[in-house]
Amino acid sequence: MSAAGHALSLQGIGKRYGDFVAVRDASLEVASGEFLTLLGPSGSGKTTILMMVAGFVEPTAGRILLDGRDITDLPPERREFGMVFQGYALFPHMTVAENVSFPLRVRKLGRAERDTKVRAALDLVQLGRFADRKPSQLSGGQQQRVALARALVFDPALLLLDEPLSALDKKLRAELQEELKALHRRVGRTFINVTHDQEEALSLSDRIAILNHGNLVQVGTPEALYERPATRFVADFLGKSNFIEGDAVVDAGGITLRRGGARVLARGTADGPAVLSLRPEKIVLLPDGAAEDNVVGGRIASWSYLGTGYGLVVETPDLGPIRVHLPAWRAAVAPAEGLPVRLGFSRDAAVAVLEDAA
Ligand SMILES: Nc1ncnc2c1ncn2[C@@H]1O[C@H](COP(=O)(O)OP(=O)(O)OP(=O)(O)O)[C@@H](O)[C@H]1O
Ligand SMILES: [Mg+2]
């Protein structure tokens, strides 16, 4: 397989079904060799975008370019994209090797060339020794890898993945995520993956595009989206967050948000009504006398043991209930309901986000 990937450009694409807008004015540049994930809740338009890229759904607005060439009106079979869907539809009556060989037969490659390519593709997904088995003799994860091999065997310009791992149990899914990442590195192709699993998106992607109600709300690296979510929806969907509403004024280091008698130093440029996102793991329980940019007193209202630490809900007089994730090694005392605590968090931990458009 050659090393070069291909660049994809979505230019204001949209899809309407009658009055219903499934995707609205989506623009996105996917770089050659990039692993991009479309992430969003059910019905947000992920599959619709993927199907427009594949050519199975015709956009009602916008253009799609591959390496600068307009492919909007090109039929799917001429786009030569590899695809893997949820539920790995392998042909049950064919062996693994015959399944993987299928796209090559369609393309009328000779026997010797087919055999070489099938072997290479099966080696790529580490299933070489299962070539002669039927799909029914494989585990779900192995079947999924056969589907991946079948999508990669003809050296596609793009690999389109629509929740390929969602049918698998959590542990197997985590293993295949690792393999998918390694596979992407080995083949150097452009991958577009669809998921509504935020952990999968964070761990696999070079960049993530977040969708909500057919709108692309934010595109960026996993770190950028997690650390600098643009909207309340992004902060809430990618990880967990507390939201603190109040009135903001600009100060020397960012903003100060007032709420009741409390003042919270935060990042942002908002002036007026604002909402802050504050991640539970960025809050610590301060020992007596210790200082932090923000210090908030409260009492533990409830707590649960999570294995990696404790999840606390701390009721505070001014900011309401605040969720805190406390790593076990940092918990100096065992949590207890009613226990008074002092919460500390840096200015950097609290970031102003926009309210989402209704
Ligand atoms: N052929 C169609 N006719 C009418 N509406 C459609 C059609 N296909 C999809 N939709 C609607 O478009 C919206 C987006 O659907 P899409 O399949 O892209 O969502 P998704 O993000 O992939 O969701 P999921 O996570 O559930 O797979 C949904 O509200 C869906 O009902
Ligand atoms: Mg879908």
Task: Give a summary of the structure in a few sentences.
Pfam families: ABC_tran (PF00005), TOBE_2 (PF08402). 25% of the residues lie in helices and 36% in strands. The protein has 358 residues and is an alpha+beta fold.
What key attributes describe this structure?
single chain; 358 residues; alpha+beta; Rossmann fold; OB fold (Dihydrolipoamide Acetyltransferase, E2P); six-stranded mixed β-sheet; five-stranded antiparallel β-sheet; 9 helices; 20 strands; elongated; binds adenosine-5'-triphosphate; binds magnesium ion
What would you say this structure looks like, in words?
With 358 residues, the chain is an alpha+beta fold. Helix 3 (96-106) packs across helix 4, helix 3 (96-106) runs parallel beside helix 5 (140-152) and helix 4 packs across helix 5. The chain has two domains: 8-231, P-loop containing nucleotide triphosphate hydrolases (Rossmann fold, 3-Layer(aba) Sandwich); 240-353, Nucleic acid-binding proteins (OB fold (Dihydrolipoamide Acetyltransferase, E2P), Beta Barrel), CATH 2.40.50. The mean pLDDT is 92. The protein has helices at 46-54, 76-79, 96-106, 111-124, 140-152, 170-187, 198-204, 222-227, 232-237, and strands at 8-17, 20-30, 35-39, 61-66, 69-70, 82-85, 158-162, 190-195, 207-212, 215-220, 242-251, 254-259, 262-266, 272-278, 284-285, 294-305, 309-316, 320-327, 340-345, 350-353. Strand 17 (309-316) and strand 18 (320-327) form a beta hairpin. The longest helix has 18 residues, at 170-187. The strands form four sheets. The chain has a six-stranded mixed beta sheet, sandwiched between helices. A five-stranded antiparallel beta sheet has the order 13-12-11-14-20. A five-stranded antiparallel beta sheet has the order 15-19-16-17-18, with no helix packed on it. Magnesium ion is lined by residues 46-47.
